[in-house]
Design brief:
Structural class of chain B: alpha/beta
Mean pLDDT of chain B: 92
CATH topology of the largest domain in chain B: Rossmann fold
Radius of gyration of chain A: 16 Å
Strand content of chain A: 25-35%
Strand order of the largest sheet of chain B: 7-6-5-8-9
CATH class of chain A: Alpha Beta
Largest sheet of chain B: 5 strands, parallel
Shape of chain B: globular
Number of domains of chain B: 2
Largest interface: A-B, 21 and 29 residues
Helix content of chain B: 25-40%
Structural class of chain A: alpha/beta
Oligomer: heterodimer
CATH architecture of the largest domain in chain B: 3-Layer(aba) Sandwich
Helix content of chain A: 25-40%
Order of helices and strands of chain A: EHEHEEHEEEHE
Largest sheet of chain A: 5 strands, parallel
Number of helices of chain A: 4
């Protein structure tokens, strides 16, 4: 048995994305030198939405790339069969740019650690900032987000699921699923 | 689709879904080779041994680059300078190498079946880099990758494999792979170099290249293996070049977007004329580039921990 509770609905997500876009522009004083890197799969969707929001506010978009961090995971030797690798699609040079990494959920921080390594291999940006839709706590590494859609305190036997129209073909929502006790 | 294999011996064993997974994975790896820092840490700490008992430039360098770009450590063992020259069997030698805790062996041998023997006798992953006249799976995979890159599909394409079918492990692997993927495969070559009964693999056989060319989307030319012609299969190389060599004249009746492929090394003036090798139809160098990506994909997939094996 597993039960789920909805934390954010479609409108909450839309407002969170819009606020993150505003915060990015405020903190960096405009769009100068910024670029967005979405971490596959849902981070990429969110990065596109943030970019659309930035266009509404400032009238221009940022260069946007998609990062696949599979090859940089620190658990490749532990899991049973190799996870599917997808393409990294970045058609601009990130050197001397301020990179905004975008992901859906910040949890242990290991995905972001892998993403930082992946970015370092692609070039030397002048800075890296992190935007996430949900911060659920339980960090295992010294990593924090610069922009957070919502902080959700969770316990370790819960899963946070972000569902987005583009990637999941369902209406946007964020739910917490309680894993059944084994 | 989850990859569960430990070894890559033959394409005969692979399902359509498995081949698609390899091609899809290779697509991601192609990007790595275009970066300034051409390295990802996926196989950090793994050791891969290259056992090449036959001469090879392309395949050995390709595997070695693939391993290095995945951060694996590689060791090369050349047959002539190894303990085999003292009379040790291949399996014993490989077991001794394995005792030093290596993870994978890439093997090429002039006898068919050597990779299979190693796979049965060892715990390491075995990758076949060409065994005798039997199989060369990574070559066929990179050929299919190149075809898919140009046409967007493999299914339904008309593909001719031309030349010395009898001695060609590239041909056999491609027949298995391409028919699994749903291509229509035609074999074309001199009757002395056509294995009897090969139609049973689901291919069409022709002895007339001029009749074949107009229908084809892809011409896959095979190297005339001069080192394996000891039994006088051909009247002369010159005659072969005249009848089965591809040149501008023969391509006049071909489709406009026909692809000319060749696994290399090419004998210019024999399988194809020099101007065709460098022409707009030729994807010979794309094949070589894609080979690194395919081999990265294979090494990556095989290095996963296997289940109950």
């Amino acid at each position: 048995m597993s039960e789920s509770t909805q934390i954010l609905d479609k409108d909450n997500i839309r407002r969170a994305v819009l606020r993150i876009a505003h915060e990015i522009l405020e903190k960096n004083k405009g769009t100068e030198g910024l670029c967005l890197l979405g971490i596959r799969t849902r981070g990429a969707v969110l990065a596109e939405r943030i970019n659309a929001a930035i266009k509404e506010i400032e009238g221009q978009t940022l260069p946007l790339g998609i990062l696949d961090i599979t090859l940089y995971r620190d658990d490749l030797t532990l899991i049973s069969s190799q996870p599917v690798v997808k393409e990294t699609l970045i058609d601009f040079d990130i050197a001397q740019k301020k990179v905004i990494l975008v992901d859906d959920v910040l949890f242990t921080g290991r995905t972001i650690r892998a993403a930082l390594d992946a970015v370092a291999d692609l070039g030397r940006p002048s800075g890296i900032q992190l935007a996430v839709l949900v911060d659920r706590g339980h960090r295992e590494l010294p990593i924090r987000a610069d922009y957070v859609g919502k902080n959700i305190p969770t316990s370790l036997n819960q899963n946070v699921k972000v569902i987005l129209k583009e990637s999941d073909e369902q209406a946007d929502k964020v739910i917490i699923v309680n894993r059944s006790e084994a | 689709m989850e990859w569960t294999r430990r070894d890559l011996i033959d394409l005969q064993d692979l399902s359509k879904e498995e081949i698609e997974l390899v091609l899809e994975t290779a697509k991601s790896f192609r990007e790595v080779s275009t970066r300034d820092v051409k390295k990802v840490p996926a196989l950090r700490g793994k050791t891969i041994v290259m056992l090449f008992f036959e001469p090879s430039t392309r395949t050995r360098i390709s595997f070695e680059l693939a391993a290095k770009r995945l951060s694996a450590d590689t060791i090369n063992i050349a047959a002539s300078s190894s303990s085999l020259s003292k009379g040790e069997s291949i399996l014993d030698m490989a077991k001794n190498v394995e005792a030093m805790n290596i993870d994978m062996i890439v093997v090429r041998h002039k006898s068919s079946g050597v990779p299979k023997i190693l796979a049965e006798g060892l715990k390491s992953s075995i990758v076949n880099a060409g065994d005798g006249c039997r199989s060369h799976p990574t070559q066929a995979l990179l050929d299919m990758f190149t075809i898919k890159e140009k046409f967007g599909r493999i299914e339904g394409l008309n593909i001719a494999i031309v030349g010395d079918i009898l001695h060609s492990r590239v041909a056999r692997s491609n027949i298995w792979g391409l028919t699994t993927m749903g291509a229509n495969v035609t074999l074309c070559g001199p009757s002395t170099l056509m294995p009897p009964g090969i139609e049973r693999l689901g291919v069409t056989v022709s002895y007339n290249l001029d009749e074949v060319i107009p229908k084809m989307d892809v011409l896959m030319l095979l190297r005339l293996q001069k080192e394996r012609q000891e039994d006088k299969f051909l009247p002369s190389i010159r005659e072969y070049a005249k009848v089965f060599g591809v040149n501008r004249e023969k391509l006049k009746k071909a489709k406009k977007d026909i692809l000319i492929m060749h696994p290399g090394p090419t004998n210019r003036g024999v399988e194809l004329s020099a101007d065709i090798a460098d022409s707009e139809y030729s994807v010979i160098l794309d094949q070589v580039t894609n080979g690194v990506a395919i081999r990265m994909a294979i090494l990556y997939l095989l290095s996963g921990k296997k289940g109950a094996e």
